[in-house]
Amino acid sequence: MPRFYFDLRDGDDLAIDEEGLELPNVGAVQAEAAISLADMARDAVHGAPLLGGGRRMAIEVRDEAGPVMQVRFSFDVETRTH
């Protein structure tokens, strides 16, 4: 089974996956990346407030040959005054 690496990007920060996961196909890779990114987004929302700003996150998936896919998520906070 091929091994895939899920590097985590949060803004300008990048955490390299040294271990990777063995997954059977690209569909399983996409599902794993989406679940991981959803977890990152949930943790970010419960973290520090993003007043007047936003957040950009991504999972960059690679295998031994190189990049396979990138799954991105972004959200912005826009405050309106009356």
List its salient traits.
1 helix; 5-stranded antiparallel beta sheet; 5 strands; elongated; alpha+beta; about 80 residues
- Please identify the oligomeric state: single chain
Shape: elongated
Percentage of residues in strands: 35-45%
Radius of gyration in whole Å, from Cα?
15 Å
Mean pLDDT, nearest integer? Answer: 88
* Spatial separation of the terminal alpha carbons: 57 Å
Going by helix content, strand content and strand pairing, the class is alpha+beta
The secondary-structure element order is EEEHEE
Helix content: 10-25%
Counting DSSP H or I runs of 4 or more residues, the number of helices is 1
Low-pLDDT windows of residues: none
Number of strands: 5
Write up what this structure looks like.
The protein contains 1 helix and 5 strands, in the order βββαββ. The chain has one helix spanning 26-45, and strands at residues 3-10, 13-15, 21-22, 54-63, 66-76. Strands 1, 2, 3, 4 and 5 form a 5-stranded antiparallel β-sheet that branches. β1 (3-10) and β2 form a beta hairpin. It is elongated, with a radius of gyration of 15 Å. 9% of the residues are buried.
